Amino acid sequence: AKEKGRNTFSYFHDDLNRISVDKFYLLKLMRDALKEEQFHLYYQPQYDLSDGRIHSCEALLRWPQKGGQFINPDQFIPLAESSGIIHEIGRWVLERACTDCMNWRTQGFGNVGVAVNISMVQFRGGNLPELVETILRRTGLPAHLLELELTESLLISDDNSIQQQLDRLHAMGVTLAIDDFGTGYSNLGYLRRFNASRLKIDKSFVSALGVSDRDKPLVRAMIQMAHSLDLKVVAEGVEDEDTLQQLRLLGCDDGQGWLWSKALPMPEWLDYLQQ
Ligand code: C2E
Ligand code: CA
Ligand code: CA
Ligand code: CA
């Protein structure tokens, strides 16, 4: 959300539908949304570029409003983080994603995993690994099918507790991916320290590939660097065939984007898998 002044958040579906609300009011709306189960998870496929199969998907949070519009996660996650309510939202997201993934597993899509976005704030308190362990046990989802997407800002912080939690998650068999790669400081040292298995190239680099050659050397370097560290590379924001072609030539492993599908709610996602 654009923060206007100290206490007002402005969220909008498009420029014609801008609603400004008090921060505290938005926070109250989020609390109600949690209680009344207004949040939904949508799933966007991630394709293996070598065999063209769906390898996994990313769970993306959606908050539908009465008029059929959505408040985008970018517009409420920041306030959820600063207020701490992200702990509850994040718990709900993990539980929902693991439950849904078990659901498509039992329908015959046993190898399609799920990637969940984790906010840095969720590592405060130190019990994210316990939470994940409890949810995996309760849902029965094998750990290797759950991937956690973490941003570089988390990994850059020199926090011993975060390192320990990531080590524990890795030891449990949960996969770690680095999200929005290339947008942060990109201190490469942390890539090895944090046992990540996948690196997601930010869509700002990917979408430019189809248009001009400017970012190509950059993307090529990211892919080569990742591969030399034994990391798989996922390109996000793949919107057209040209971009896909470029990514294939550059040796990118997986792709995600509107070329294949937007994020879909559960019944549609099952239909999509069926095709
Ligand atoms: P992200 O993790 O970088 O997610 C990718 C964003 O790109 C998503 O936006 C997705 O809908 C969008 N996208 C997918 N394919 C394409 C494409 O081909 N072209 C373009 N232009 N965009 C594409 P979304 O769903 O609005 O999410 C925005 C951000 O909100 C996410 O960025 C993530 O940082 C955050 N977020 C979403 N769900 C959660 C959640 O459950 N927990 C937390 N902590 N953050 C979340
Ligand atoms: Ca993500
Ligand atoms: Ca991303
Ligand atoms: Ca992002």
From TrEMBL:
All copies of domain EAL, residue ranges: 23-275
UniProt keyword annotation of Disulfide bond present: no
UniProt key word Transmembrane helix: yes
UniProt keyword annotations, A-Z: Coiled coil, Membrane, Transmembrane, Transmembrane helix
Organism superkingdom: Bacteria
Identification of the protein by name: EAL domain-containing protein
Organism, as annotated: Venatoribacter cucullus
Full-protein residues shown: 358 to 632 of 648
